[in-house]
């Protein structure tokens, strides 16, 4: 692995850690304000942080600043912004009705959806991907289904969020080599912030008191999760296979579960974040499926390779 790929892989892992802990701030933020208010303000904070970074770094670089392919960058920002708005809204509403740990693992299903989504781009989907998808379905059943065979609405929302996040990853991969990542991230958060804030003014009735009380959660979600995390994702995905990138990013589910449990134990979250043995088993199956999908294809073709080798030697 080249030095650049190693560095980018580390950036993606750091992103996963930031996002995993952001589930706690999102859940805590719901105690103070409407989901649209939280999403809108945190996205605008993220956009502002990135705008300042862009202005400062490009002025410092002067004539040495890297030229920007503005048509591609703007187009990428718009598409990413649309996907991010839908996904983050579904996730924020979903977290209100489910636990941090469950939300983290359900969101991680985007790792399964990325290779399956490749069908629409005429990419071959291996048998191991379908096996992983089946395992993920079993894990989801154990994690989310109750004894009355009902699926919580929060779980459904987060599941749909995972589908849209998979699309977001594929959009980023499509434009990664041509667009300027930080500017794309700034545009996508500006779009998400404007749309969600407008929705909050209609349905959320935001107040200064809400923003003051939830300032800590907004700053973490806005500066770190939005401003830093999504930018690290876009920069980190350059030169890294999108499915491998999704594997690394899926570690956010583990971080979210641990962070949610710790936050409840220290009294930061009021809702019990612990899981039953059945739910833990579901999480384990989902995570194994996620890892299985990302293993090199040649690992599963040993018998065929051996047969071919014998044929050549004979």
Features:
single chain, 77% helix, mainly alpha, 314 residues, 0% strand, 14 helices, disordered C terminus
Describe it for me?
With 314 residues, the protein is mostly helical. The chain starts with a helix and ends with a helix. Helix content is 77%, strand content 0%. The relative contact order is 0.22. The radius of gyration is 20 Å and the shape is globular. Residues 309-314 have low confidence and may be disordered. The protein has 14 helices and no strands.
Write the layout of secondary structure elements.
Elements: H1 3-29, H2 35-61, H3 70-97, H4 100-107, H5 110-117, H6 127-144, H7 153-175, H8 181-204, H9 208-213, H10 215-236, H11 242-249, H12 252-265, H13 277-294, H14 302-313
Helix pairs in contact: 1-4, 1-10, 1-12, 2-3, 2-8, 2-10, 3-7, 3-8, 4-7, 4-12, 5-6, 5-7, 5-11, 6-13, 8-10
Specify the number of helices: 14
- What is the terminal separation in angstroms? 35 Å
Low-confidence stretches: 309-314
Average pLDDT score: 84
Report the sheet with the most strands, covering strand number, pairing sense and barrel closure. Answer: none
Radius of gyration: 20 Å
Q: What's the β-strand tally? A: 0
Give the helix level as a range of percent. Answer: over 70%
Summarize the structure.
The protein contains 14 helices and no strands.
